[in-house]
Amino acid sequence: MGQEELMSRAEDVADQFLRVTKQYLPHLARLCLISTFLEDGIRMWFQWNEQRDYIEGTWGCGYFLATCFVLLNLTGQLGGCVLILSRNFVQYACFGLFGIIALQTVAYSILWDIKFLMRNLALGGGLLLLLAESRSEGKSMFAGVPSMGESSPKQYMQLGGRVLLVLMFMTLLHFDPSFFSILQNMVGTALIILVAVGFKTKLAALTLVIWLLAINVYFNAFWTVPAYKPMHDFLKYDFFQTTSVIGGLLLVVALGPGGVSMDEKKKEW
Questions:
Q1: With DSSP H G I counted as helix, E B as strand and the rest as coil, what are the percentages for the chain, rounded to 5?
Q2: Strand, helix or coil at 135?
Protein backbone atom coordinates (compact mmCIF):
# COMPACT_ATOMS: atom_id res chain seq x y z
CA MET A 1 0.00 0.00 0.00
CA GLY A 2 1.46 3.34 -1.10
CA GLN A 3 1.84 6.37 1.15
CA GLU A 4 -0.86 8.33 -0.69
CA GLU A 5 -3.32 5.44 -0.49
CA LEU A 6 -2.63 5.01 3.21
CA MET A 7 -3.18 8.73 3.81
CA SER A 8 -6.39 8.63 1.77
CA ARG A 9 -7.73 5.74 3.84
CA ALA A 10 -6.83 7.52 7.08
CA GLU A 11 -8.68 10.64 5.91
CA ASP A 12 -11.71 8.48 4.99
CA VAL A 13 -11.72 7.05 8.54
CA ALA A 14 -11.49 10.57 9.99
CA ASP A 15 -14.34 11.79 7.76
CA GLN A 16 -16.48 8.82 8.80
CA PHE A 17 -15.78 9.62 12.45
CA LEU A 18 -16.87 13.22 11.88
CA ARG A 19 -20.09 12.20 10.15
CA VAL A 20 -21.04 9.93 13.05
CA THR A 21 -20.11 12.39 15.81
CA LYS A 22 -20.83 15.81 14.23
CA GLN A 23 -23.87 16.43 16.47
CA TYR A 24 -22.02 15.61 19.69
CA LEU A 25 -18.40 16.59 19.02
CA PRO A 26 -18.72 20.36 19.62
CA HIS A 27 -20.48 19.73 22.96
CA LEU A 28 -17.80 17.23 24.03
CA ALA A 29 -15.10 19.66 22.90
CA ARG A 30 -16.54 22.49 25.03
CA LEU A 31 -16.89 20.22 28.07
CA CYS A 32 -13.28 19.06 27.77
CA LEU A 33 -12.08 22.60 27.16
CA ILE A 34 -13.61 24.06 30.32
CA SER A 35 -12.75 21.03 32.50
CA THR A 36 -9.58 22.55 33.96
CA PHE A 37 -11.43 25.75 34.93
CA LEU A 38 -14.27 23.72 36.43
CA GLU A 39 -11.87 21.57 38.47
CA ASP A 40 -9.85 24.59 39.62
CA GLY A 41 -12.97 26.50 40.65
CA ILE A 42 -14.19 23.53 42.71
CA ARG A 43 -10.71 23.17 44.23
CA MET A 44 -10.81 26.83 45.27
CA TRP A 45 -13.98 26.03 47.23
CA PHE A 46 -12.58 22.97 49.02
CA GLN A 47 -9.10 24.47 49.56
CA TRP A 48 -10.29 27.99 50.35
CA ASN A 49 -8.08 28.49 53.43
CA GLU A 50 -4.97 26.95 51.87
CA GLN A 51 -5.26 29.05 48.70
CA ARG A 52 -5.92 32.25 50.65
CA ASP A 53 -3.00 31.61 53.01
CA TYR A 54 -0.67 30.85 50.08
CA ILE A 55 -1.51 34.13 48.31
CA GLU A 56 -1.30 36.11 51.54
CA GLY A 57 2.06 34.55 52.45
CA THR A 58 3.57 34.80 48.95
CA TRP A 59 2.52 38.34 48.12
CA GLY A 60 2.07 39.84 51.60
CA CYS A 61 -1.16 41.42 50.37
CA GLY A 62 -3.18 40.92 53.54
CA TYR A 63 -6.16 38.77 54.46
CA PHE A 64 -8.78 40.81 52.59
CA LEU A 65 -7.03 40.96 49.19
CA ALA A 66 -6.07 37.28 49.40
CA THR A 67 -9.70 36.39 50.08
CA CYS A 68 -10.81 38.54 47.13
CA PHE A 69 -8.32 36.70 44.90
CA VAL A 70 -9.70 33.28 45.83
CA LEU A 71 -13.30 34.50 45.51
CA LEU A 72 -12.59 35.99 42.07
CA ASN A 73 -11.00 32.75 40.89
CA LEU A 74 -13.88 30.66 42.21
CA THR A 75 -16.74 32.74 40.82
CA GLY A 76 -14.94 33.69 37.60
CA GLN A 77 -14.11 30.12 36.66
CA LEU A 78 -17.36 28.44 37.72
CA GLY A 79 -19.45 31.28 36.28
CA GLY A 80 -17.54 31.18 32.99
CA CYS A 81 -18.00 27.40 32.74
CA VAL A 82 -21.76 27.69 33.31
CA LEU A 83 -22.10 30.39 30.63
CA ILE A 84 -20.06 28.41 28.07
CA LEU A 85 -21.93 25.16 28.65
CA SER A 86 -25.30 26.93 28.51
CA ARG A 87 -24.21 28.89 25.36
CA ASN A 88 -25.00 32.25 26.95
CA PHE A 89 -22.65 35.26 26.69
CA VAL A 90 -19.89 32.93 25.50
CA GLN A 91 -17.61 35.73 24.33
CA TYR A 92 -17.78 37.48 27.72
CA ALA A 93 -17.14 34.15 29.47
CA CYS A 94 -14.07 33.55 27.30
CA PHE A 95 -12.67 37.00 28.04
CA GLY A 96 -13.28 36.38 31.74
CA LEU A 97 -11.37 33.08 31.59
CA PHE A 98 -8.55 34.79 29.67
CA GLY A 99 -8.35 37.17 32.62
CA ILE A 100 -8.25 34.27 35.09
CA ILE A 101 -5.37 32.67 33.15
CA ALA A 102 -3.42 35.96 33.19
CA LEU A 103 -4.13 36.50 36.90
CA GLN A 104 -3.00 32.99 37.86
CA THR A 105 0.09 33.26 35.65
CA VAL A 106 1.26 36.21 37.73
CA ALA A 107 -0.08 35.15 41.15
CA TYR A 108 1.42 31.66 41.05
CA SER A 109 4.68 32.80 39.37
CA ILE A 110 3.93 30.64 36.32
CA LEU A 111 5.51 33.36 34.18
CA TRP A 112 8.97 32.09 35.18
CA ASP A 113 8.23 28.38 34.67
CA ILE A 114 8.44 27.80 30.91
CA LYS A 115 6.57 24.45 31.00
CA PHE A 116 3.56 25.81 32.89
CA LEU A 117 3.62 29.05 30.89
CA MET A 118 3.42 27.13 27.61
CA ARG A 119 0.53 25.05 28.94
CA ASN A 120 -1.32 28.19 30.02
CA LEU A 121 -0.78 29.66 26.57
CA ALA A 122 -2.15 26.43 25.07
CA LEU A 123 -5.25 26.89 27.25
CA GLY A 124 -5.56 30.38 25.82
CA GLY A 125 -5.41 28.85 22.35
CA GLY A 126 -8.38 26.65 23.18
CA LEU A 127 -10.34 29.69 24.36
CA LEU A 128 -9.49 31.50 21.09
CA LEU A 129 -11.00 28.61 19.15
CA LEU A 130 -14.09 28.78 21.35
CA LEU A 131 -14.35 32.51 20.59
CA ALA A 132 -14.12 31.73 16.88
CA GLU A 133 -16.89 29.16 17.23
CA SER A 134 -19.12 31.62 19.07
CA ARG A 135 -18.59 34.19 16.28
CA SER A 136 -19.69 31.69 13.64
CA GLU A 137 -22.77 30.81 15.70
CA GLY A 138 -23.65 34.49 16.01
CA LYS A 139 -23.32 35.04 12.27
CA SER A 140 -25.48 31.99 11.53
CA MET A 141 -28.44 34.04 12.81
CA PHE A 142 -28.17 36.05 9.59
CA ALA A 143 -28.17 33.08 7.23
CA GLY A 144 -29.08 34.14 3.70
CA VAL A 145 -27.74 37.66 4.07
CA PRO A 146 -24.97 38.34 1.52
CA SER A 147 -21.50 38.57 3.03
CA MET A 148 -17.94 39.15 1.88
CA GLY A 149 -16.83 35.72 3.12
CA GLU A 150 -15.50 34.54 6.40
CA SER A 151 -14.49 37.36 8.69
CA SER A 152 -10.78 38.00 9.11
CA PRO A 153 -10.95 38.19 12.93
CA LYS A 154 -12.41 34.69 13.07
CA GLN A 155 -9.78 33.34 10.66
CA TYR A 156 -6.94 34.76 12.71
CA MET A 157 -8.50 33.55 15.97
CA GLN A 158 -8.48 30.03 14.53
CA LEU A 159 -4.87 30.44 13.37
CA GLY A 160 -3.78 31.80 16.76
CA GLY A 161 -5.69 29.07 18.56
CA ARG A 162 -4.03 26.32 16.49
CA VAL A 163 -0.54 27.74 16.99
CA LEU A 164 -0.99 28.16 20.75
CA LEU A 165 -2.46 24.67 21.15
CA VAL A 166 0.70 23.04 19.84
CA LEU A 167 2.70 24.55 22.71
CA MET A 168 1.20 21.82 24.92
CA PHE A 169 2.95 19.18 22.82
CA MET A 170 6.29 20.93 23.03
CA THR A 171 6.18 20.33 26.80
CA LEU A 172 5.75 16.59 26.15
CA LEU A 173 8.90 16.16 24.05
CA HIS A 174 11.55 14.04 25.78
CA PHE A 175 15.18 14.68 24.94
CA ASP A 176 16.76 11.31 25.61
CA PRO A 177 18.45 8.89 23.17
CA SER A 178 15.98 5.99 23.45
CA PHE A 179 14.39 4.80 20.21
CA PHE A 180 10.83 5.22 21.53
CA SER A 181 11.46 8.84 22.62
CA ILE A 182 13.07 9.73 19.28
CA LEU A 183 10.17 8.16 17.35
CA GLN A 184 7.58 9.89 19.56
CA ASN A 185 9.33 13.25 19.14
CA MET A 186 9.52 12.89 15.34
CA VAL A 187 5.88 11.84 14.91
CA GLY A 188 4.63 14.39 17.45
CA THR A 189 6.63 17.23 15.87
CA ALA A 190 5.31 16.36 12.40
CA LEU A 191 1.71 16.35 13.66
CA ILE A 192 1.95 19.66 15.52
CA ILE A 193 3.49 21.32 12.44
CA LEU A 194 0.59 20.02 10.33
CA VAL A 195 -1.94 21.44 12.82
CA ALA A 196 -0.11 24.77 13.08
CA VAL A 197 0.07 25.35 9.31
CA GLY A 198 -3.37 23.85 8.70
CA PHE A 199 -2.45 20.97 6.39
CA LYS A 200 -4.48 17.73 6.66
CA THR A 201 -5.68 19.51 9.77
CA LYS A 202 -8.62 17.39 10.88
CA LEU A 203 -6.70 14.13 10.51
CA ALA A 204 -3.61 15.50 12.28
CA ALA A 205 -5.71 17.01 15.12
CA LEU A 206 -7.68 13.79 15.58
CA THR A 207 -4.43 11.80 15.73
CA LEU A 208 -3.09 14.21 18.35
CA VAL A 209 -6.30 13.81 20.37
CA ILE A 210 -5.82 10.03 20.49
CA TRP A 211 -2.12 10.36 21.30
CA LEU A 212 -2.64 12.99 24.00
CA LEU A 213 -5.54 11.04 25.53
CA ALA A 214 -3.35 7.95 25.88
CA ILE A 215 -0.48 9.96 27.40
CA ASN A 216 -2.86 11.74 29.77
CA VAL A 217 -4.47 8.57 31.14
CA TYR A 218 -1.11 6.79 31.47
CA PHE A 219 1.09 9.52 32.96
CA ASN A 220 -1.45 11.66 34.86
CA ALA A 221 -3.45 8.91 36.59
CA PHE A 222 -4.07 10.95 39.75
CA TRP A 223 -6.75 8.49 40.90
CA THR A 224 -3.99 5.93 41.60
CA VAL A 225 -2.28 8.25 44.11
CA PRO A 226 -3.74 8.77 47.63
CA ALA A 227 -5.42 12.16 48.00
CA TYR A 228 -3.22 13.21 50.94
CA LYS A 229 -0.04 13.05 48.84
CA PRO A 230 1.10 16.26 47.05
CA MET A 231 1.60 14.27 43.83
CA HIS A 232 -2.17 13.66 43.69
CA ASP A 233 -2.93 17.38 43.23
CA PHE A 234 -0.02 17.83 40.80
CA LEU A 235 -1.17 14.97 38.55
CA LYS A 236 -4.79 16.11 38.82
CA TYR A 237 -3.83 19.61 37.69
CA ASP A 238 -1.86 18.18 34.75
CA PHE A 239 -4.69 15.79 33.83
CA PHE A 240 -7.36 18.49 33.55
CA GLN A 241 -5.06 20.96 31.77
CA THR A 242 -4.30 18.28 29.19
CA THR A 243 -8.03 17.46 28.90
CA SER A 244 -8.69 21.12 28.11
CA VAL A 245 -6.15 21.07 25.29
CA ILE A 246 -7.83 17.90 23.99
CA GLY A 247 -11.05 19.94 23.95
CA GLY A 248 -9.34 22.62 21.87
CA LEU A 249 -8.12 20.02 19.39
CA LEU A 250 -11.62 18.53 19.16
CA LEU A 251 -12.85 22.02 18.21
CA VAL A 252 -10.26 22.04 15.42
CA VAL A 253 -11.57 18.64 14.29
CA ALA A 254 -15.19 19.82 14.45
CA LEU A 255 -14.76 23.29 12.89
CA GLY A 256 -11.79 22.81 10.58
CA PRO A 257 -8.64 24.97 10.40
CA GLY A 258 -10.28 28.20 9.18
CA GLY A 259 -9.38 30.46 6.29
CA VAL A 260 -5.70 31.00 7.14
CA SER A 261 -4.52 27.46 6.43
CA MET A 262 -3.02 25.33 3.70
CA ASP A 263 -6.18 23.21 3.56
CA GLU A 264 -8.21 26.30 2.68
CA LYS A 265 -5.65 27.57 0.17
CA LYS A 266 -5.63 24.19 -1.59
CA LYS A 267 -9.27 24.78 -2.56
CA GLU A 268 -8.14 27.83 -4.57
CA TRP A 269 -5.43 25.96 -6.47
A1: 80, 0, 20
A2: helix
